[in-house]
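Most newcomers find our protein records easier to grasp once they have seen one. To make this concrete, we reproduce a full record directly below:

===
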Amino acid sequence: MKPEIKEKFKAEREPPVVTPKTEKQREYFRLLEDPEIQAIVCLGYHGTGKTYCAGVVAADKFRKNEITKIIVARAYVQTGNTSGFKPGTSLQKLYPYVRNVLDTIKSRIGAGAYEVALRDGESGEIEVQEVESIRGRSFDQPSFLIIDEAQQTTPEEMQSIVTRVSDNCKLVLCGDILQKDIHGQCGLEWFLSFAKRHGLKGVGIVDFDSPDDIVRGGLVKAIAVGMMKDRDSQAVLQ
């Protein structure tokens, strides 16, 4: 970690301890902390803490200098267009879609250290990248690679990612297969099936598939519970 980030850390207050709110969150935190688990597939609806928990652990490890880089990536799919058709950097294009993860990291490491580490979103210790731009890269340094909305990747994209992650990198795939816009099998489905079929060691799976797994309250929980009921009854949008 660079000296200027360490100095920023000194000026920031220690973040509060985060404790799991459900048994599946407890298992998720365990997998995120387990050095023997190299890749985690986290499935489920919104409001279950998929990206929040990953952001907390990644930020805390970065703060403690246990990792030196955090990469937040997203497969950008919107009405058939990729973000490549829009001007600006990956950070500028993807920020509205990964802000929840970045806000979590910022709250854990402090605003000053966050700004120093993020820089332009590409050259700093915290990166924001499109899935297309990280294909073929090697992740050799101690790091967390968090891919949000992983159900929007293609099998080819997912293959190119999982085959480039080193023993020093923790890969976290967050998504909801039922919310995919990919026609046919998506990358998240491919990897989940592949890992189960071959009994891959070092892969952890958490599926937030119950109303009890939703930690948010109010309307957010009511909508998520309704979506679960529709899924179970195979209801379609009217």
Remarks:
- The chain has one domain: 3-232.
- Residues 145 and 209 are 24 Å apart (CA to CA).
